[in-house]
Structure formats: C-alpha cells, structure tokens
Fold:
Amino acid sequence: MSNTDIEIVVEDPTAPEANSPTVTSVRVVDVVVSLVLLALAITLGFDNWRTGAGWETTGPQPGYFPFYLSVILGGASLYGLVAAFLSRTEATESFVTRAQLRRVMAVFVPTLLFVLVTQFLGLYVASFLLISGFMRLVGKIAWWKSLLTAFVFTAAMFVTFDVAFDVIMPKGPLEAAFGR
Structure:
C-alpha cells in the first residue's frame, strides 16, 4: 500500500448525528432568499427611480446607477426563482438538518444577544459576557478559565482602543462609572 492510499479518519464526538430529520430543503431556501432579494430590489429600484434615475445635461441623476443595479438584482432574483422551481434535485436535497440547525443556533443566538446587549451595557461588558459564555457553554471550559480569558481579552481591547488609540466605542454604565 502506498502512502497515497492511507486515509486518516478522525471521529468528531460532537458532530451532529447523521440520521437527524431535515428541517428544510435547498429549494425552499433558494425561493425564500430570491423573494427577499426581489423585494429589496423592488424597494431600492422604486426609491432610486423616485429620486431620479435618469440622465441630465450635467450627467447622471443621483439614483441612476443604484436604479440599474437594483434592476440587475431583480433580474438575478427572478432567475433564481425560475431555477429553483425548475430544479428537481433541489426539492429533495436537504439544506439543513435539525441537529445542524441546533449547532448553528448555538452560535447565532448568543451573537444576536451580544449585539442587543452592546446597546445597553456597552461593547466591553457585552464582549466579556459573550466570550466567557461561549467558552463555558459551547467550549465546556472551566468557569475560572473562561472568566479570566474574557477579562484579559476585554481589558486588552479596552487599553488598545480606548486608551492607546482613543477610538470611540459604544459605552455602557460600567465604563461611565470609570469616567471613560
């Protein structure tokens, strides 16, 4: 047996199970994304047409180029819709299974919460919560390591951005208490 025939198989104990039921098909996702993009193209096209999508003696009006970009986006969306309905393989092909979706949501939901919490507690407190939460809940790392790493990273971010470069970042009540 040559070296090129050797295959190394590494089992991932946290991988989603192979027999997980399908949540949605590729066709459904293609149709939904195409419809959202078509709605966006129509909205942008109308708004740019309203502000002026023509050509004046001095050159293009403000909405000229964005209008035609929205026409291209709308055409591509219509093409995507037609292609999705004509494809036979996409109707049966699984886009995501329940186990895969659960893993994606384990990252998406905390990240969405991070964005919302940043508005009220500031960037550094929200970053601390996100990092320590991810390390503990997703990574299964000890609490003390998670808290220490989150604190060191957040402190380094604060010193780098707020102190060294004086970059304006979203502040919360804790930063205000320190006079920053």
About this structure: The chain has a mean pLDDT of 89. DSSP finds seven helices and four strands in the chain.
